[in-house]
Amino acid sequence: MTNTETDWLQLNRENWDDRVRIHAVSNFYDLPGFRAGGSTLRSFELDEVGDVSGKRLLHLQCHMGQDTLSWARRGAEVTGLDFSRAAVRAARTLAEDIGMTDRARFVVSDVYEAPAALDGERFDIVYTGLGALVWLPDLLRWANVVSSMLKDGGAVYLAEFHPLTELLGEDGKTLEHDYFRTQAQTYDFPHTYTDGPPLTKTLSVQWQHPLGEVVTALAQAGLRIEFLHEHDAMLFQRYPMLERSRNGEYRFPAGHPRIPLMYSIRAIKSA
Protein backbone atom coordinates (compact mmCIF):
# COMPACT_ATOMS: atom_id res chain seq x y z
CA MET A 1 0.00 0.00 0.00
CA THR A 2 1.37 3.44 -0.94
CA ASN A 3 1.81 6.31 1.49
CA THR A 4 -1.09 8.04 -0.23
CA GLU A 5 -3.40 5.14 0.52
CA THR A 6 -2.29 4.86 4.15
CA ASP A 7 -3.17 8.54 4.58
CA TRP A 8 -6.63 8.00 3.06
CA LEU A 9 -8.61 9.52 5.91
CA GLN A 10 -6.64 12.76 6.02
CA LEU A 11 -6.61 13.11 2.23
CA ASN A 12 -10.33 12.48 1.92
CA ARG A 13 -11.18 14.85 4.77
CA GLU A 14 -9.12 17.63 3.18
CA ASN A 15 -10.73 16.92 -0.19
CA TRP A 16 -14.27 17.11 1.25
CA ASP A 17 -13.49 20.18 3.35
CA ASP A 18 -12.44 21.86 0.12
CA ARG A 19 -15.58 20.72 -1.73
CA VAL A 20 -17.92 22.39 0.76
CA ARG A 21 -17.13 25.96 -0.33
CA ILE A 22 -18.00 24.97 -3.91
CA HIS A 23 -21.03 22.81 -3.14
CA ALA A 24 -22.61 25.43 -0.88
CA VAL A 25 -23.00 27.88 -3.76
CA SER A 26 -23.55 25.37 -6.57
CA ASN A 27 -26.66 24.98 -8.70
CA PHE A 28 -26.36 21.24 -8.12
CA TYR A 29 -27.08 21.49 -4.39
CA ASP A 30 -29.38 24.54 -4.73
CA LEU A 31 -29.37 25.56 -1.07
CA PRO A 32 -31.74 28.51 -1.75
CA GLY A 33 -34.29 26.07 -3.16
CA PHE A 34 -33.85 23.82 -0.14
CA ARG A 35 -34.33 26.71 2.25
CA ALA A 36 -37.55 27.51 0.39
CA GLY A 37 -38.93 24.07 1.22
CA GLY A 38 -37.32 21.62 -1.20
CA SER A 39 -36.52 17.99 -0.41
CA THR A 40 -33.51 16.04 -1.63
CA LEU A 41 -34.92 12.57 -0.95
CA ARG A 42 -35.82 10.30 -3.85
CA SER A 43 -39.40 9.03 -4.16
CA PHE A 44 -38.32 5.40 -3.77
CA GLU A 45 -36.54 6.29 -0.52
CA LEU A 46 -39.70 7.80 0.93
CA ASP A 47 -41.69 4.70 -0.03
CA GLU A 48 -39.12 2.22 1.24
CA VAL A 49 -38.26 3.91 4.53
CA GLY A 50 -41.88 4.74 5.30
CA ASP A 51 -43.24 7.00 8.01
CA VAL A 52 -40.46 8.49 10.15
CA SER A 53 -42.65 10.65 12.40
CA GLY A 54 -41.32 10.62 15.95
CA LYS A 55 -38.44 8.28 15.11
CA ARG A 56 -34.78 8.88 15.89
CA LEU A 57 -32.76 8.78 12.66
CA LEU A 58 -28.98 8.81 12.29
CA HIS A 59 -27.55 9.85 8.93
CA LEU A 60 -23.97 8.71 8.41
CA GLN A 61 -21.77 10.73 6.02
CA CYS A 62 -24.37 13.50 5.86
CA HIS A 63 -22.25 16.16 4.06
CA MET A 64 -24.13 19.51 4.25
CA GLY A 65 -27.20 17.92 5.78
CA GLN A 66 -29.88 18.32 3.11
CA ASP A 67 -30.98 14.68 3.16
CA THR A 68 -30.79 14.72 6.97
CA LEU A 69 -32.98 17.81 7.20
CA SER A 70 -35.36 16.42 4.59
CA TRP A 71 -36.05 13.55 7.02
CA ALA A 72 -36.50 16.10 9.82
CA ARG A 73 -39.09 17.91 7.72
CA ARG A 74 -40.97 14.61 7.56
CA GLY A 75 -41.10 14.38 11.34
CA ALA A 76 -37.94 12.52 12.38
CA GLU A 77 -35.59 13.57 15.15
CA VAL A 78 -32.32 13.54 13.24
CA THR A 79 -28.59 13.38 13.88
CA GLY A 80 -26.25 13.97 10.97
CA LEU A 81 -22.63 12.84 11.20
CA ASP A 82 -19.77 13.76 8.88
CA PHE A 83 -15.97 13.84 9.14
CA SER A 84 -15.75 17.28 7.50
CA ARG A 85 -15.96 20.20 9.94
CA ALA A 86 -16.71 22.52 7.05
CA ALA A 87 -19.67 20.36 5.99
CA VAL A 88 -21.02 20.17 9.55
CA ARG A 89 -20.76 23.96 9.89
CA ALA A 90 -22.76 24.34 6.68
CA ALA A 91 -25.34 21.79 7.91
CA ARG A 92 -25.78 23.56 11.24
CA THR A 93 -26.25 26.90 9.47
CA LEU A 94 -28.80 25.33 7.14
CA ALA A 95 -30.71 23.88 10.11
CA GLU A 96 -30.82 27.34 11.68
CA ASP A 97 -31.96 28.91 8.42
CA ILE A 98 -34.97 26.59 8.12
CA GLY A 99 -35.84 26.55 11.83
CA MET A 100 -34.94 22.91 12.49
CA THR A 101 -32.41 23.18 15.33
CA ASP A 102 -34.93 21.70 17.78
CA ARG A 103 -35.19 18.53 15.65
CA ALA A 104 -31.73 18.26 14.08
CA ARG A 105 -28.15 18.16 15.32
CA PHE A 106 -24.88 17.63 13.49
CA VAL A 107 -21.74 15.96 14.80
CA VAL A 108 -18.17 15.88 13.46
CA SER A 109 -16.82 12.32 13.34
CA ASP A 110 -15.39 9.67 11.08
CA VAL A 111 -17.95 6.88 10.51
CA TYR A 112 -15.84 4.29 12.28
CA GLU A 113 -15.69 6.47 15.40
CA ALA A 114 -19.42 7.23 15.43
CA PRO A 115 -20.33 5.07 18.47
CA ALA A 116 -17.80 6.92 20.63
CA ALA A 117 -18.70 10.33 19.17
CA LEU A 118 -22.36 9.74 20.05
CA ASP A 119 -21.61 8.12 23.42
CA GLY A 120 -23.26 4.83 22.54
CA GLU A 121 -26.65 6.26 21.55
CA ARG A 122 -28.95 4.02 19.56
CA PHE A 123 -31.46 4.91 16.87
CA ASP A 124 -34.63 3.63 15.22
CA ILE A 125 -33.16 4.19 11.74
CA VAL A 126 -29.61 4.45 10.46
CA TYR A 127 -29.61 6.01 6.99
CA THR A 128 -26.79 6.20 4.44
CA GLY A 129 -27.32 8.06 1.18
CA LEU A 130 -25.90 8.00 -2.31
CA GLY A 131 -22.16 8.02 -2.91
CA ALA A 132 -21.11 7.14 0.65
CA LEU A 133 -19.64 3.63 0.57
CA VAL A 134 -16.81 4.34 -1.89
CA TRP A 135 -15.12 6.37 0.86
CA LEU A 136 -14.92 3.43 3.28
CA PRO A 137 -12.21 0.73 3.07
CA ASP A 138 -13.77 -1.83 5.44
CA LEU A 139 -17.46 -2.61 4.97
CA LEU A 140 -17.69 -5.23 7.71
CA ARG A 141 -16.40 -2.69 10.20
CA TRP A 142 -18.95 -0.19 8.84
CA ALA A 143 -21.78 -2.71 9.17
CA ASN A 144 -20.79 -3.51 12.74
CA VAL A 145 -20.87 0.21 13.56
CA VAL A 146 -24.33 0.47 12.01
CA SER A 147 -25.60 -2.55 13.96
CA SER A 148 -24.21 -1.23 17.25
CA MET A 149 -26.08 2.05 16.78
CA LEU A 150 -29.48 0.51 16.04
CA LYS A 151 -32.11 -0.19 18.65
CA ASP A 152 -33.44 -3.73 18.72
CA GLY A 153 -35.97 -3.90 15.89
CA GLY A 154 -34.42 -0.85 14.23
CA ALA A 155 -33.54 -0.67 10.54
CA VAL A 156 -30.62 0.41 8.43
CA TYR A 157 -31.56 1.86 5.06
CA LEU A 158 -28.97 2.33 2.34
CA ALA A 159 -29.45 3.93 -1.09
CA GLU A 160 -26.42 3.80 -3.38
CA PHE A 161 -25.16 4.05 -6.92
CA HIS A 162 -24.99 0.55 -8.39
CA PRO A 163 -21.41 -0.77 -8.73
CA LEU A 164 -22.17 -1.90 -12.30
CA THR A 165 -22.22 1.78 -13.33
CA GLU A 166 -18.49 1.94 -12.62
CA LEU A 167 -17.68 -0.74 -15.20
CA LEU A 168 -18.56 1.24 -18.33
CA GLY A 169 -16.58 4.03 -19.90
CA GLU A 170 -17.89 7.56 -20.29
CA ASP A 171 -19.67 6.57 -23.51
CA GLY A 172 -21.78 4.03 -21.63
CA LYS A 173 -20.96 1.39 -24.26
CA THR A 174 -17.47 0.10 -23.52
CA LEU A 175 -16.58 -2.25 -20.68
CA GLU A 176 -13.45 -0.65 -19.23
CA HIS A 177 -13.14 -1.63 -15.57
CA ASP A 178 -13.04 -4.76 -13.42
CA TYR A 179 -16.10 -5.39 -11.24
CA PHE A 180 -13.91 -7.11 -8.64
CA ARG A 181 -11.41 -4.24 -8.38
CA THR A 182 -11.63 -3.81 -4.61
CA GLN A 183 -8.19 -2.40 -3.84
CA ALA A 184 -7.80 1.28 -3.02
CA GLN A 185 -7.82 3.66 -5.98
CA THR A 186 -6.13 7.06 -5.66
CA TYR A 187 -7.57 9.85 -7.82
CA ASP A 188 -6.35 13.35 -8.62
CA PHE A 189 -9.32 15.30 -9.97
CA PRO A 190 -9.13 19.11 -10.35
CA HIS A 191 -12.92 19.55 -9.96
CA THR A 192 -15.70 18.18 -7.81
CA TYR A 193 -18.82 16.71 -9.43
CA THR A 194 -20.81 19.96 -9.31
CA ASP A 195 -20.53 23.22 -11.17
CA GLY A 196 -18.00 25.68 -9.76
CA PRO A 197 -14.29 26.56 -9.55
CA PRO A 198 -11.38 24.11 -9.25
CA LEU A 199 -10.44 22.36 -6.05
CA THR A 200 -7.25 23.15 -4.15
CA LYS A 201 -7.16 19.71 -2.48
CA THR A 202 -7.50 17.36 -5.43
CA LEU A 203 -6.39 13.95 -4.11
CA SER A 204 -8.85 11.33 -2.86
CA VAL A 205 -8.78 7.60 -2.10
CA GLN A 206 -11.79 5.42 -2.90
CA TRP A 207 -12.87 1.78 -2.87
CA GLN A 208 -15.28 -0.05 -5.18
CA HIS A 209 -17.57 -2.47 -3.31
CA PRO A 210 -19.38 -5.24 -5.24
CA LEU A 211 -23.01 -5.71 -4.28
CA GLY A 212 -22.29 -9.09 -2.68
CA GLU A 213 -19.76 -7.48 -0.34
CA VAL A 214 -22.35 -4.97 0.89
CA VAL A 215 -25.03 -7.59 1.55
CA THR A 216 -22.58 -9.98 3.19
CA ALA A 217 -21.21 -7.29 5.51
CA LEU A 218 -24.71 -6.43 6.75
CA ALA A 219 -25.58 -10.10 7.24
CA GLN A 220 -22.34 -10.84 9.09
CA ALA A 221 -23.05 -7.90 11.40
CA GLY A 222 -26.19 -9.73 12.50
CA LEU A 223 -28.70 -7.77 10.44
CA ARG A 224 -31.55 -9.47 8.57
CA ILE A 225 -31.85 -8.32 4.97
CA GLU A 226 -35.46 -7.30 4.35
CA PHE A 227 -35.00 -6.35 0.69
CA LEU A 228 -32.50 -5.48 -1.99
CA HIS A 229 -34.01 -3.41 -4.79
CA GLU A 230 -32.21 -2.45 -8.00
CA HIS A 231 -33.38 0.71 -9.77
CA ASP A 232 -33.24 1.67 -13.44
CA ALA A 233 -32.88 5.42 -12.78
CA MET A 234 -29.97 7.77 -12.06
CA LEU A 235 -29.82 11.30 -10.62
CA PHE A 236 -27.67 12.72 -13.40
CA GLN A 237 -26.76 11.91 -17.00
CA ARG A 238 -24.10 9.32 -16.22
CA TYR A 239 -24.01 8.18 -19.88
CA PRO A 240 -24.84 10.17 -23.04
CA MET A 241 -27.82 7.98 -24.01
CA LEU A 242 -29.67 8.44 -20.70
CA GLU A 243 -32.83 10.51 -21.05
CA ARG A 244 -34.30 12.83 -18.44
CA SER A 245 -37.81 11.96 -17.33
CA ARG A 246 -40.47 14.36 -16.06
CA ASN A 247 -39.50 13.71 -12.42
CA GLY A 248 -35.89 14.71 -13.13
CA GLU A 249 -34.41 11.19 -13.11
CA TYR A 250 -32.34 9.76 -15.96
CA ARG A 251 -33.07 6.39 -17.62
CA PHE A 252 -32.06 4.41 -20.67
CA PRO A 253 -34.38 5.12 -23.62
CA ALA A 254 -37.20 2.70 -24.43
CA GLY A 255 -35.87 -0.43 -26.10
CA HIS A 256 -32.26 0.14 -25.01
CA PRO A 257 -30.61 -2.65 -22.98
CA ARG A 258 -30.48 -1.61 -19.33
CA ILE A 259 -28.27 -2.14 -16.31
CA PRO A 260 -29.28 -1.17 -12.77
CA LEU A 261 -28.15 2.38 -11.97
CA MET A 262 -28.96 2.56 -8.25
CA TYR A 263 -29.86 0.09 -5.53
CA SER A 264 -31.39 0.19 -2.07
CA ILE A 265 -31.20 -2.14 0.91
CA ARG A 266 -33.16 -2.31 4.13
CA ALA A 267 -31.96 -4.57 6.96
CA ILE A 268 -33.37 -5.12 10.43
CA LYS A 269 -31.68 -5.66 13.79
CA SER A 270 -33.47 -8.49 15.56
CA ALA A 271 -35.16 -7.69 18.86
UniProtKB/TrEMBL annotation:
| Biological process, per Gene Ontology | antibiotic biosynthetic process; methylation
Q: Tell me, what's a Pfam family for it?
A: Methyltransf_25
Residues forming the Methyltransferase domain are 58-154
One GO MF term attached to the UniProt entry? methyltransferase activity
* Alphabetic keyword roster: Methyltransferase, Transferase
List, alphabetically, the InterPro entries matched: Methyltransf_25, SAM-dependent_MTases_sf
Which SUPFAM superfamilies does this entry report, sorted A to Z?
A: S-adenosyl-L-methionine-dependent methyltransferases
| Protein's UniProt name | Putative SAM-dependent methyltransferase
